Amino acid sequence: MFSAIEAIRRRDPASQSTVEILLCYPGLHALILHRINDVLHKKLKIPVFPRLISHLGRFITGIEIHPGAQIGKNFFIDHGMGVVIGETAEIGDNVTLYQGVTLGGTSSERVKRHPTLKDNVTVGAGANVLGAITIGENSRIGAGSVVVHDVPPNSSVVGVPGRAVAIDGKKISSGRLDHGSLPDPIREQLEKLQHMIEEHEEKTKNKQNVRAEKSDLSNTKT
Question: What is the rounded distance in angstroms from the CA atom of residue 141 to the CA atom of residue 115?
Fold first, then answer.
C-alpha cells in the first residue's frame, strides 16, 4: 500500500498529504479491495465472496476490478470513475489509468480475453483497450482511443481504431500524458490529401496556361 501511496504522490500534483490520499483517492480504495480479493480469489479459492467485494468496491468508488485481474506494483488510477478491468487483464508495474478506461474482453470463451499492459503504460481518459492484446512497455494510449491490436513498446496510440505513432523515435516517459503533444494521424492524412490536391491544381493550372499560350501563338500566326 505504501508504494501505491507514493505512486499517487509522484504522479498527481493535486495530492497534498498522505491523509488526503488515504481518505480521498478512490483508485487507492479500489486497489486495496482488489489486493484483498487477490488473496481470497487466487490463494484461498473462496467462491462468490470476492465478487461481492468487487461489487461493493464498484458501488463505493465507481471502479470495477474483477478479482481475477493481475495488477503489478505502483498502480495508479487517477479520478477513476467508470474504470473497468476485466477478469483476465494483466497489468504490469508503474501503470497509470485515467477515468473511464475499459480493459475489456472480446470473447465469451473461458480463455485469455482481456489486455496485457506491460510496465510503465499510461492510458488516457475514456480509452478502450479490448481483447487479448499486449500494450508494450512505456507506451501511451491517447484519450478516447479504441485499441484492438498489439502495440509495440515506446509508442503513442491515438484514434479509432487506435494506431501506434512513433514520436521522433524517442522513448516515451511513463508517468505523464500530455494530450496536447500526442500526434494526430487523421489530421496528418488530411494535410497530405490537401497537399496532393494543391499539387494537382497547380499542375492543371500550368497545363491550362501552356495551352492558352499555344492558342495565342496560333492566333498570332494566323
Answer: 13
Q: Give the Å distances, CA to CA, from 76 to 110, 142, 187.
A: 28, 17, 31
> Where does residue 165 rank: exposed (0-12), middle (13-18), buried (19+ CB within 10 A)?
middle
* Beta carbons within 10 angstroms of residue 167's beta carbon: 14
pTM of the model: 0.74
Residue-wise pLDDT tens digits, 8-63: 988 988 888 999 999 999 999 999 999 999 999 988 999 899 999 999 999 999 99
SS3 at position 202: helix
Q: pLDDT: is 134 or 214 the higher one?
A: 134
Closest CA to 153 of 142, 164, 143, 161: 164
* 111, 114, 119, 120: CA torsion to nearest 10: 180
For 133-142, the CB contacts below 8 A with 24+ separation are 137/92, 138/171, 138/172, 138/173, 138/174, 139/164, 139/172, 140/172, 140/177, 140/182, 142/177, 142/179, 142/182
Task: Work out the pLDDT band at 177, boundaries 50, 70, 90.
Answer: low
Q: Which three cell numbers stand for residue 160?
A: 479509432
